[in-house]
Structure formats: C-alpha cells, structure tokens
Design goal:
Elements: H1 2-27, E1 33-41, H2 47-56, E2 69-78, E3 81-90, H3 97-101, E4 109-115, H4 119-123, H5 125-135, E5 141-147, H6 159-169, E6 172-175, H7 184-204
Parallel strand pairs: 1-3, 1-4, 4-5, 5-6
Antiparallel strand pairs: 2-3
C-alpha cells in the first residue's frame, strides 16, 4: 500500500508540474481549428499514460484508473494551420460506459487502443468499433493503436492479426509504447492529418466542414459537445 501511495503521489506531482501549460493551452483562443479527439479502449491498456506522454512528455508506471472522463489540451501546427486538440481520456470500465459514450458526439477522431500483451483487450476492439459507429458521427476518423510494444517478450497479440483487423474495419494501425515514447507523436499527427484530409474533401465537395474557429465558438467543454461542432 505504501508503494502504491508513493506512485500515486508521483503521478499527482507529474500532473501538477504540467498543469500550468495545460491551462495556458486551454485558455488560448489563437487557433484556426479545434479538433475533439477521444482515446478509448479497455481499462489498463495505457490510455492515460499515452495521453500524458503526448501532452506533457511524462510517464509513470503507476496504474491510476480513470474515473469517468478527463481531458488535456494541446496546440499543434499542421499544414500551416494552428490546431487546438482537445483530447479526452475515457474510462474503460463498463460502469462508466454511459458517461463516456455521451462524449462521442462531436468527436472528430478516435484512438482505439488495446494492449499487445492482453488478448481480451484486443478481442474487445470490435465492440469498441461498434460503439464508435453507434454513438459518433459518420465522418469520425479512427486509428487502431496496439500499446505497450516495449513488452515484446510478453506479446500475446500478433502484429499480423491487428493489421488484418484494422484493414477489415477501415482503420489505420500503429503499434506504440507510451513508456518508451514509440510512435506516440506519430499516432496523433496521423490522426490530425486524416481529419484535415477529410475536411479538405468536404471543402471540395458538398459535405459539412467542421470545427473551424468562429466568433460564436466558446472554449468550454459541456458534456457531449466539448466545444466542437461538425
């Protein structure tokens, strides 16, 4: 129990250390687009660690279960545009499902994550994909992420099986590691790029263009909307 308490304290310290920058990013109104992104998947696959690695470049081995839903804000530059990413970290437990699925609406993109050392988390990917289809909008982009690729000796999910499933679902696929910072930035950049590509297609056609900053958009995060509209 003492070890767990110390681990939780370290996690809290890492969060507090980066909170000032996160608050600054959240309050920043100087952006061209805002994208609402969700990280979903079974509990303990590493969703929170993945988000912390990307947003704050921090990592802790302590497992702290996400209660309900949390988010971070990060501003990036892609294709000469300043894009504010509102990244939601969802709880994987079934008891939070009603809460978390309420946030699917308005999401531009999803990271659907499983643990390469946990077959059950991979088997659940199809169910998570069905939830995306059920609760999100049709133009939401999805990347399948096999996390914890640093644990190759403990692998239970072959890369080939994941590639095959991603192809069947029409998702792009990465294996990554929050611990060793493998493909974390690349995953988010890829998701942002495919969302931008979809928006450009909409500009060229008759489809709706979403999440462009305008004077009516508020930087608040009400349930189910998160400041996004598409």
């Amino acid at each position: 129990m003492e070890t767990l308490s110390i681990s939780r304290q370290r996690w809290a310290m890492a969060t507090a250390t980066n909170s000032h920058q996160s608050q600054k990013d959240a309050a920043d109104q100087n952006f061209d687009y805002m994208f609402k992104l969700l990280i979903i998947g079974n509990s303990s696959v590493g969703k929170t660690s993945f988000l912390f690695r990307y947003a704050d470049d921090s990592f802790t081995s302590a497992f702290v279960s996400t209660v309900g839903i949390d988010f971070k804000v990060k501003t990036v530059f892609r294709n000469n545009k300043r894009i504010k990413l509102q990244i939601w970290d969802t709880a994987g437990q079934e008891r939070y499902r009603t809460i978390t699925t309420a946030y699917y609406r308005g999401a531009m993109g999803f990271l659907l994550m499983y643990d390469i050392t946990n077959q059950d988390s991979f088997s659940a990917v199809q169910d998570w994909a069905t939830q995306i289809k059920t609760y999100s909008w049709d133009n939401a982009q999805v990347i399948l992420v096999g996390n914890k690729c640093d644990l190759e000796d403990d692998r239970l999910v072959p890369t080939e099986d994941s590639q095959r499933l991603a192809h069947e679902l029409g998702f792009q696929f990465f294996e990554a590691s929050a611990k060793d910072n493998i493909n974390v930035k690349q995953v988010f950049e890829c998701l942002v790029d495919v969302i931008c590509d979809k928006m450009n297609e909409s500009l060229d056609g008759d489809g709706p263009v979403s999440n462009h900053k305008d004077s009516s958009q508020q930087d608040t995060f009400p349930e189910g909307h998160g400041g996004c509209a598409c």
